[in-house]
Amino acid sequence: MNPVKPMFNSQLNADLHCHSVVSDGTLTPEVLAPRAKANGVELWSLTDHDEIGGQDRALAAAKALNMPYLTGTEISVTFAGHTVHIVGLGFDHHNSNLTQGLRQTRGGREERAREMSNGLAKVGIHGAYEGALKFAGNPELISRTHFARFMVESGVCQDTSEVFRRFLTENKPGYVPHRWASLKEAVQWITQAQGIAVIAHPARYRFTPNEEYALFTEFKNHGGQAVEVVTGSHTAAEALRYASTALEFGLAASRGSDFHSPDESHTDLGSLPFLPSQLTPVWALLADRIQ
Ligand code: AMP
Ligand code: MN
Ligand code: MN
Ligand code: MN
Protein backbone atom coordinates (compact mmCIF):
# COMPACT_ATOMS: atom_id res chain seq x y z
CA MET A 1 0.00 0.00 0.00
CA ASN A 2 1.25 3.46 -0.90
CA PRO A 3 -0.21 6.04 1.53
CA VAL A 4 0.74 9.03 -0.69
CA LYS A 5 -0.85 7.82 -3.90
CA PRO A 6 -4.52 8.61 -3.08
CA MET A 7 -3.60 12.29 -2.74
CA PHE A 8 -2.60 12.36 -6.41
CA ASN A 9 -5.90 10.83 -7.45
CA SER A 10 -8.48 13.07 -9.11
CA GLN A 11 -11.18 10.63 -7.86
CA LEU A 12 -10.78 11.81 -4.27
CA ASN A 13 -13.66 13.13 -2.18
CA ALA A 14 -11.88 16.38 -1.36
CA ASP A 15 -13.98 19.31 -0.12
CA LEU A 16 -11.76 22.38 -0.17
CA HIS A 17 -14.32 25.18 0.25
CA CYS A 18 -16.81 25.78 3.07
CA HIS A 19 -17.69 28.30 5.77
CA SER A 20 -18.20 28.27 9.54
CA VAL A 21 -19.55 30.76 12.12
CA VAL A 22 -16.11 32.38 11.96
CA SER A 23 -17.38 34.01 8.72
CA ASP A 24 -20.87 33.55 7.24
CA GLY A 25 -21.58 29.85 7.84
CA THR A 26 -24.04 28.74 10.51
CA LEU A 27 -22.11 25.74 11.91
CA THR A 28 -18.98 25.69 14.08
CA PRO A 29 -15.75 24.03 12.87
CA GLU A 30 -16.42 21.29 15.46
CA VAL A 31 -19.79 20.50 13.85
CA LEU A 32 -18.59 20.85 10.25
CA ALA A 33 -15.76 18.33 10.65
CA PRO A 34 -17.95 15.32 11.65
CA ARG A 35 -20.50 16.31 9.00
CA ALA A 36 -17.73 16.23 6.38
CA LYS A 37 -16.45 12.90 7.70
CA ALA A 38 -19.97 11.38 7.72
CA ASN A 39 -20.39 12.48 4.09
CA GLY A 40 -17.20 10.66 3.10
CA VAL A 41 -14.84 13.62 2.78
CA GLU A 42 -11.26 12.34 2.43
CA LEU A 43 -9.49 15.72 2.43
CA TRP A 44 -11.05 18.80 3.99
CA SER A 45 -10.43 22.55 4.23
CA LEU A 46 -12.38 25.26 6.07
CA THR A 47 -12.17 28.44 3.96
CA ASP A 48 -13.80 31.26 5.92
CA HIS A 49 -14.06 34.63 4.16
CA ASP A 50 -11.06 36.92 4.87
CA GLU A 51 -10.39 35.14 8.15
CA ILE A 52 -8.24 32.28 9.43
CA GLY A 53 -9.31 32.44 13.09
CA GLY A 54 -11.05 29.05 12.74
CA GLN A 55 -8.03 27.14 11.40
CA ASP A 56 -6.72 25.68 14.66
CA ARG A 57 -10.24 24.53 15.62
CA ALA A 58 -10.88 22.97 12.19
CA LEU A 59 -7.50 21.24 12.18
CA ALA A 60 -8.03 19.81 15.70
CA ALA A 61 -11.54 18.62 14.80
CA ALA A 62 -10.29 16.99 11.57
CA LYS A 63 -7.37 15.32 13.37
CA ALA A 64 -9.71 13.88 16.01
CA LEU A 65 -11.56 12.15 13.14
CA ASN A 66 -8.43 11.09 11.26
CA MET A 67 -9.51 13.25 8.30
CA PRO A 68 -6.64 14.83 6.30
CA TYR A 69 -6.77 18.65 6.44
CA LEU A 70 -5.44 21.65 4.48
CA THR A 71 -5.49 25.19 5.90
CA GLY A 72 -7.86 27.47 3.98
CA THR A 73 -9.40 30.90 3.46
CA GLU A 74 -11.41 32.75 0.79
CA ILE A 75 -10.17 36.29 0.14
CA SER A 76 -12.43 39.03 -1.29
CA VAL A 77 -10.73 40.86 -4.16
CA THR A 78 -11.75 43.74 -6.43
CA PHE A 79 -10.83 43.10 -10.06
CA ALA A 80 -12.05 45.18 -13.03
CA GLY A 81 -14.76 46.66 -10.82
CA HIS A 82 -16.14 43.26 -9.79
CA THR A 83 -15.74 41.26 -6.58
CA VAL A 84 -13.77 38.07 -7.15
CA HIS A 85 -13.00 35.42 -4.53
CA ILE A 86 -9.56 33.84 -4.26
CA VAL A 87 -9.27 30.70 -2.16
CA GLY A 88 -5.95 30.03 -0.44
CA LEU A 89 -4.99 26.47 0.51
CA GLY A 90 -2.15 24.85 2.43
CA PHE A 91 -0.53 28.07 3.72
CA ASP A 92 1.23 28.63 7.02
CA HIS A 93 -1.60 30.22 9.01
CA HIS A 94 0.85 31.91 11.37
CA ASN A 95 2.45 33.91 8.53
CA SER A 96 2.34 37.56 9.64
CA ASN A 97 2.00 39.05 6.14
CA LEU A 98 -1.08 36.92 5.55
CA THR A 99 -2.68 37.58 8.94
CA GLN A 100 -2.08 41.34 8.59
CA GLY A 101 -3.41 41.40 5.02
CA LEU A 102 -6.56 39.60 6.07
CA ARG A 103 -7.04 41.94 9.02
CA GLN A 104 -6.78 44.89 6.64
CA THR A 105 -9.32 43.29 4.27
CA ARG A 106 -11.79 42.76 7.12
CA GLY A 107 -11.34 46.38 8.19
CA GLY A 108 -13.95 48.10 6.02
CA ARG A 109 -16.81 45.72 6.77
CA GLU A 110 -18.32 47.49 9.75
CA GLU A 111 -18.57 50.85 7.97
CA ARG A 112 -19.99 49.14 4.89
CA ALA A 113 -22.58 47.36 7.04
CA ARG A 114 -23.68 50.68 8.55
CA GLU A 115 -24.08 52.15 5.05
CA MET A 116 -26.06 49.07 3.98
CA SER A 117 -28.31 49.55 6.98
CA ASN A 118 -28.86 53.23 6.05
CA GLY A 119 -29.81 52.20 2.51
CA LEU A 120 -32.30 49.65 3.82
CA ALA A 121 -33.79 52.18 6.27
CA LYS A 122 -34.63 54.40 3.29
CA VAL A 123 -36.94 51.66 1.98
CA GLY A 124 -38.55 51.11 5.39
CA ILE A 125 -36.36 48.31 6.78
CA HIS A 126 -35.14 49.53 10.15
CA GLY A 127 -32.55 48.20 12.60
CA ALA A 128 -30.82 46.07 9.96
CA TYR A 129 -27.28 46.69 11.25
CA GLU A 130 -28.16 45.54 14.78
CA GLY A 131 -30.27 42.73 13.34
CA ALA A 132 -27.48 41.46 11.09
CA LEU A 133 -24.92 41.74 13.87
CA LYS A 134 -26.94 39.27 15.97
CA PHE A 135 -26.39 36.68 13.24
CA ALA A 136 -22.66 37.38 12.91
CA GLY A 137 -20.61 34.87 14.93
CA ASN A 138 -17.61 37.12 14.26
CA PRO A 139 -18.47 40.84 14.41
CA GLU A 140 -15.37 41.68 12.31
CA LEU A 141 -16.87 39.64 9.52
CA ILE A 142 -20.35 41.10 9.23
CA SER A 143 -21.46 40.24 5.69
CA ARG A 144 -24.40 40.47 3.32
CA THR A 145 -25.32 36.93 4.35
CA HIS A 146 -26.02 38.10 7.91
CA PHE A 147 -28.27 40.89 6.61
CA ALA A 148 -30.08 38.31 4.48
CA ARG A 149 -30.67 36.06 7.51
CA PHE A 150 -32.01 39.00 9.53
CA MET A 151 -34.41 39.93 6.72
CA VAL A 152 -35.71 36.37 6.44
CA GLU A 153 -36.18 36.18 10.22
CA SER A 154 -38.05 39.47 10.28
CA GLY A 155 -40.36 38.31 7.48
CA VAL A 156 -39.27 40.77 4.77
CA CYS A 157 -38.43 37.86 2.42
CA GLN A 158 -39.07 34.11 2.22
CA ASP A 159 -35.44 33.06 1.80
CA THR A 160 -31.94 34.50 1.52
CA SER A 161 -31.80 34.30 -2.28
CA GLU A 162 -34.86 36.54 -2.44
CA VAL A 163 -33.12 39.03 -0.13
CA PHE A 164 -30.05 39.11 -2.38
CA ARG A 165 -32.17 39.50 -5.49
CA ARG A 166 -34.34 42.30 -4.12
CA PHE A 167 -32.04 44.15 -1.74
CA LEU A 168 -28.37 43.18 -1.65
CA THR A 169 -27.09 43.13 -5.23
CA GLU A 170 -25.94 45.96 -7.51
CA ASN A 171 -28.38 48.88 -7.79
CA LYS A 172 -30.56 47.53 -4.97
CA PRO A 173 -31.20 49.57 -1.78
CA GLY A 174 -28.95 47.59 0.58
CA TYR A 175 -26.03 47.26 -1.83
CA VAL A 176 -22.87 49.23 -1.04
CA PRO A 177 -19.93 48.86 -3.45
CA HIS A 178 -16.75 48.00 -1.63
CA ARG A 179 -13.06 48.08 -2.45
CA TRP A 180 -11.49 44.80 -1.32
CA ALA A 181 -7.87 43.66 -1.66
CA SER A 182 -6.22 43.66 -5.09
CA LEU A 183 -5.74 40.39 -6.97
CA LYS A 184 -1.98 40.79 -6.67
CA GLU A 185 -2.11 41.31 -2.90
CA ALA A 186 -4.36 38.31 -2.26
CA VAL A 187 -2.30 35.94 -4.43
CA GLN A 188 0.94 37.16 -2.86
CA TRP A 189 -0.32 36.86 0.74
CA ILE A 190 -1.20 33.23 0.02
CA THR A 191 1.87 32.22 -1.98
CA GLN A 192 4.35 33.99 0.32
CA ALA A 193 2.85 31.91 3.15
CA GLN A 194 3.68 28.75 1.12
CA GLY A 195 0.07 28.24 0.05
CA ILE A 196 -1.62 27.84 -3.31
CA ALA A 197 -4.03 30.45 -4.69
CA VAL A 198 -7.20 29.25 -6.40
CA ILE A 199 -9.76 31.27 -8.41
CA ALA A 200 -13.07 30.46 -6.66
CA HIS A 201 -16.28 29.64 -8.61
CA PRO A 202 -15.30 31.51 -11.84
CA ALA A 203 -18.76 31.07 -13.41
CA ARG A 204 -20.26 33.31 -10.72
CA TYR A 205 -18.59 36.52 -11.99
CA ARG A 206 -20.27 38.54 -14.68
CA PHE A 207 -17.16 39.13 -16.75
CA THR A 208 -16.96 39.67 -20.49
CA PRO A 209 -14.71 37.09 -22.22
CA ASN A 210 -11.94 39.73 -22.35
CA GLU A 211 -12.21 40.52 -18.65
CA GLU A 212 -12.20 36.82 -17.78
CA TYR A 213 -9.11 36.28 -19.93
CA ALA A 214 -7.43 39.19 -18.12
CA LEU A 215 -8.37 37.70 -14.72
CA PHE A 216 -6.84 34.31 -15.52
CA THR A 217 -3.77 35.85 -17.16
CA GLU A 218 -3.02 38.26 -14.31
CA PHE A 219 -3.77 35.59 -11.71
CA LYS A 220 -1.16 33.32 -13.30
CA ASN A 221 1.35 36.15 -13.63
CA HIS A 222 1.04 36.89 -9.90
CA GLY A 223 1.72 33.23 -9.06
CA GLY A 224 -1.80 31.74 -8.90
CA GLN A 225 -1.83 28.02 -9.67
CA ALA A 226 -5.38 26.62 -9.56
CA VAL A 227 -9.05 27.18 -10.33
CA GLU A 228 -12.22 25.71 -8.84
CA VAL A 229 -13.80 23.49 -11.45
CA VAL A 230 -16.24 21.38 -9.44
CA THR A 231 -18.07 23.55 -6.91
CA GLY A 232 -21.55 23.87 -5.44
CA SER A 233 -21.71 27.16 -7.38
CA HIS A 234 -21.26 25.54 -10.82
CA THR A 235 -23.62 23.59 -13.03
CA ALA A 236 -22.26 20.48 -14.76
CA ALA A 237 -21.86 22.52 -17.97
CA GLU A 238 -19.92 25.24 -16.13
CA ALA A 239 -17.63 22.60 -14.58
CA LEU A 240 -16.84 21.30 -18.08
CA ARG A 241 -16.21 24.79 -19.35
CA TYR A 242 -13.74 25.61 -16.57
CA ALA A 243 -12.08 22.21 -16.96
CA SER A 244 -11.11 23.47 -20.43
CA THR A 245 -10.02 26.82 -19.00
CA ALA A 246 -7.81 25.00 -16.45
CA LEU A 247 -6.11 23.08 -19.25
CA GLU A 248 -5.79 26.18 -21.43
CA PHE A 249 -4.07 28.16 -18.68
CA GLY A 250 -2.11 25.26 -17.21
CA LEU A 251 -3.86 25.52 -13.84
CA ALA A 252 -4.55 22.73 -11.36
CA ALA A 253 -8.19 22.09 -10.45
CA SER A 254 -9.96 22.34 -7.11
CA ARG A 255 -13.22 20.93 -5.77
CA GLY A 256 -15.41 22.27 -2.96
CA SER A 257 -19.05 22.51 -1.93
CA ASP A 258 -19.00 26.15 -0.68
CA PHE A 259 -21.28 24.82 2.08
CA HIS A 260 -22.62 27.54 4.42
CA SER A 261 -25.66 26.11 6.18
CA PRO A 262 -27.95 23.04 6.19
CA ASP A 263 -30.91 25.41 5.69
CA GLU A 264 -29.46 27.49 2.84
CA SER A 265 -26.92 25.44 0.89
CA HIS A 266 -28.12 23.06 -1.79
CA THR A 267 -24.75 21.27 -1.95
CA ASP A 268 -23.74 19.51 1.26
CA LEU A 269 -20.13 18.89 2.31
CA GLY A 270 -18.55 16.16 0.16
CA SER A 271 -21.60 15.86 -2.14
CA LEU A 272 -20.08 16.75 -5.49
CA PRO A 273 -19.09 14.98 -8.70
CA PHE A 274 -15.40 14.03 -8.95
CA LEU A 275 -12.97 16.22 -10.86
CA PRO A 276 -12.62 15.32 -14.55
CA SER A 277 -9.73 12.85 -14.63
CA GLN A 278 -7.62 14.71 -17.21
CA LEU A 279 -7.05 17.59 -14.75
CA THR A 280 -4.26 17.93 -12.20
CA PRO A 281 -5.97 18.03 -8.79
CA VAL A 282 -4.76 20.92 -6.63
CA TRP A 283 -4.03 18.44 -3.82
CA ALA A 284 -1.32 16.87 -5.99
CA LEU A 285 0.58 20.18 -5.57
CA LEU A 286 -0.11 20.25 -1.83
CA ALA A 287 0.85 16.72 -0.73
CA ASP A 288 3.47 18.02 1.72
CA ARG A 289 1.04 20.58 3.21
CA ILE A 290 -1.65 18.08 4.17
CA GLN A 291 -1.95 17.72 7.94
P1 AMP B 1 -20.04 39.87 1.34
O1 AMP B 1 -18.66 39.30 1.49
O2 AMP B 1 -20.53 40.58 2.56
O3 AMP B 1 -20.20 40.70 0.10
O4 AMP B 1 -21.05 38.63 1.19
C1 AMP B 1 -20.84 37.71 0.19
C2 AMP B 1 -21.54 36.40 0.54
O5 AMP B 1 -22.93 36.52 0.28
C3 AMP B 1 -21.09 35.25 -0.34
O6 AMP B 1 -19.94 34.65 0.19
C4 AMP B 1 -22.27 34.31 -0.27
O7 AMP B 1 -22.21 33.55 0.92
C5 AMP B 1 -23.44 35.25 -0.14
N1 AMP B 1 -24.14 35.48 -1.42
C6 AMP B 1 -23.74 36.25 -2.45
N2 AMP B 1 -24.66 36.26 -3.43
C7 AMP B 1 -25.69 35.49 -2.99
C8 AMP B 1 -26.97 35.11 -3.53
N3 AMP B 1 -27.36 35.55 -4.73
N4 AMP B 1 -27.76 34.31 -2.78
C9 AMP B 1 -27.37 33.87 -1.56
N5 AMP B 1 -26.18 34.19 -1.00
C10 AMP B 1 -25.35 34.99 -1.70
MN1 MN C 1 -20.27 33.32 1.94
MN1 MN D 1 -17.24 32.92 -2.78
MN1 MN E 1 -17.35 30.59 -0.29
Would you mind describing this structure in some detail?
The chain is an alpha/beta fold. The protein has 2 domains: 14-105 and 179-289, TIM Barrel; 109-168, DNA polymerase, domain 1. It has 10 helices and 7 strands. The strands form 2 sheets. The chain has a 5-stranded mixed β-sheet with strand order 3-4-5-6-7. The protein has a two-stranded parallel ribbon with strand order 1-2. It is globular. The chain starts with 13 loop residues before the first strand and ends in a 35-residue tail after the last strand.
Task: Summarize the model shown.
The protein has 291 residues and is an alpha/beta fold.
Uncertain runs: 1-5
CATH class category label of the largest domain: Alpha Beta
Rounded average pLDDT: 96
The third-level CATH topology of the largest domain is TIM Barrel
By DSSP (H or I, 4+ residues per run), the number of helices equals 10
CATH architecture of the largest domain: Alpha-Beta Barrel
CATH superfamily of the largest domain: Metal-dependent hydrolases
Q: How many strand segments?
A: 7
The strand line-up of the biggest sheet is 3-4-5-6-7
| Strand content range | 5-15%
In N-to-C order, the SSE pattern is EHEHEEHHHHHHEHEHE
Which ligands occur here? Answer: adenosine monophosphate, manganese (II) ion
Shape annotation: globular
Assembly state here? single chain
Calculate the terminal CA-CA distance, rounded to whole Å. 20 Å
Radius of gyration: 18 Å
Count of spatially separate domains: 2
Give the helix/strand class: alpha/beta
State the major sheet. 5 strands, mixed
Share of residues in helices = 25-40%
